[in-house]
Amino acid sequence: MPSAGQEPSDNIVIIGVIKETVPGEKRVALVPDAVKTLVADDLEVVVQAGAGEAAGFPDATYTEKGATLESDTAALLGRADVVLGVQPPGPEVLGALRSGTIWIGFLKPLDETALAKSLAEKGVTSFSMELMPRITRAQSMDALSSQSTISGYRAVLLASFHLPKIFPMLVTAAGTLSPARVLVIGAGVAGLQAIGTARRLGAVVESYDTRPAVKEQVESLGARFVELDLDTGDAEDSGGYAKAQTEEFYQQQREQLGKRVSASDVVITTALVPGQQAPLLITEEAVRAMKPGSVVVDLAAEKGGNCALTQADQDVVVDGVTILGHTNLPAEIPFHASQMYAKNLVTFLKHLVDEGKIELDLEDEITKGALLTHEGQITNDAVKARAEGAN
Ligand code: NAD
Predict the structure, then answer these.
(1) Distance from first CA to last CA of the chain, Å, rounded?
(2) Residue 6: what pLDDT?
(3) Which residues, 6 or more positions from 325, have their beta carbon under 8 angstroms from its beta carbon?
(4) In sequence order, what DSSP letters do the residues of 10-77 get, joined into one string?
(5) Confidence at residue 10, expressed as pLDDT on a 0 to 100 scale
(6) Distance between CA atoms of 31 and 347, rounded to whole angstroms?
(7) d(CA 282, CA 325)
(8) Ligand 1 atom 20: the closest Cα is on which residue?
(9) Which of 3, 343, 352, 372 has the fewest beta carbons under 10 Å from its own?
């Protein structure tokens, strides 16, 4: 409940920025420049003290841009009309949320259905950034894409750091060094960024994706598209995402990809199917056939991994091959990841606000698409079906 003297304002909409508490989460939902934009739009911004510290934004950088600071979580939640977060709220924050508050952040809607239920029961109107429609009009609000861009970049740097070789070809007086060979499996947003980054470092890159449509994008980045003898005619859904394939398909894919994997110095896997465990694409046998010193970076680690040997948030070494299972790569580059995420949130907020007031147009494709809970209900059909199925 709001504390005395801190009733939510009837006039000015107050945007609260929560300090993240999940271990290793260094991002913050709003950066100081984003505060300035919101304040210029007649919104008030309250930032939890220390919220931006780990991302490189000390408290003073927020107050300079017009935010006020609040140390206490319950007091912040008592004041804010809209709360912005990166990770889903933990029990303490959830317990202090008021009915009628709007929460905007990543909410892992298809995985954490119990959270969606709690938000609905508490009367919180929540928007999940994962549910943002992937349409042209919402591109600047697409936080999955912005954070995947950071992940793809970081994956290549991690690999280069662990690899006992350099990436580019070098012709020197001390001899000629051959370039690193990089295989990127899954050429979505993260995969394409990984391809571009590895190419810029001088690696020879090849990539495979079940969506044939990406072949041209892969080639335009200077990488080779790996052709497999698989029927991918029905690989893409209407939203541009990969569809789940049969176990027989994955079996064949694993067999055919095995040779490409063992010939690579670095394999970066990003293959995901929305709402499902990640497909298993690299067998233990294929990893053991890689040269010692090779590196696998598995961006699907949080969803079980694309590689049989991946362990979430652990570095595994098998026969001299390192398999990295970092589950939160954007948090490893928190300054720019936060800057991009904040831009996504501010654009979305501007979409929801009209003349300083929150106006929810539930007929609007973007507002309706991102909405997870409202007026006591889970509003997203897929999440609702999952939540009911979990009963
Ligand atoms: P994602 O993270 O869900 O998946 C990553 C990649 O893995 C995808 O390219 C997918 O096809 C691939 N994949 C799945 N199973 C695979 C398998 N067995 N083998 C190899 N690859 C496999 O996807 P994402 O990166 O978030 O986005 C995917 C697509 O969504 C984009 O490429 C695009 O078409 C669309 N999109 C559209 C917009 C927009 O229009 N605003 C924005 C972002 C993404």
Answers:
(1) 30
(2) 42
(3) 298, 301, 305, 310, 311, 312, 313, 314, 315, 316
(4) SSSPEEEEPPP-STT----S--HHHHHHHHHTT-EEEEETTTTGGGT--HHHHHTTT-EEE--HHHHH
(5) 59
(6) 13
(7) 14
(8) 209
(9) 3
Give the C-alpha distances (Å, rounded to integers) separating 293 from 203, 287, 319, 323: 16, 11, 9, 10
Q: Residues, the chain, total?
A: 391
Catalytic residue IDs: 134, 139, 142, 145, 241
Query: By the 8 A CB rule, do 78 and 6 touch?
Result: yes
The alpha carbon of 290 is separated from its chain's Cα centroid by a whole number of angstroms, namely 29
Under a CB-based contact definition with an 8 Å cutoff, are residues 189 and 145 in contact? Answer: yes
Neighbours of 55 (CB within 10 A): 25
Instruction: Say what the pTM is.
Output: 0.94
What sign does the CA torsion over 374, 147, 258, 296 have?
Answer: negative
Per-residue burial over 336-360, b if 16 or more Cβ lie within 10 Å, else e, is bbbbbbbbbbbbbbebbbeeeeeee
Q: Which residues line ligand 1 (CB under 6 A)?
A: 134-136, 139, 142, 144-145, 148, 185-191, 208-211, 240-242, 253, 270-274, 279, 281
The owner of tokens 């026969």 is 319
Q: Taking a C-beta distance cutoff of 8 angstroms, is the pair 67, 84 a contact?
A: no
**Helix crossing, 334-352 with 32-40: angle to 10°?**
20
Amino acid, res. 145: S
Residue closest to 272 by CA, chosen among 211, 193, 215, 343? 211
Pocket test for ligand 1, best of 272, 281, 283 (most atoms within 8 A of CB): 272
Helix 113-121 and helix 381-389, axial crossing angle in degrees, nearest 10: 100
- Write the CB contacts of 253 (distance below 8 Å, at least 6 apart in sequence): 210, 228, 230, 245, 279, 281
Q: Which residues contact 244 (CB under 8 A, 6 or more apart)?
A: 273, 276, 279
207 CA distance to ligand 1 centroid (A)? 13
Task: Report the chain (391 residues): mean pLDDT per 10 consecutive residues.
Answer: 43 96 97 97 97 98 98 97 98 95 97 96 98 96 98 98 98 98 98 98 97 95 96 81 90 95 98 91 97 98 97 98 98 98 98 93 97 98 91 61
DSSP string, 189-203: HHHHHHHHHHHHTT-
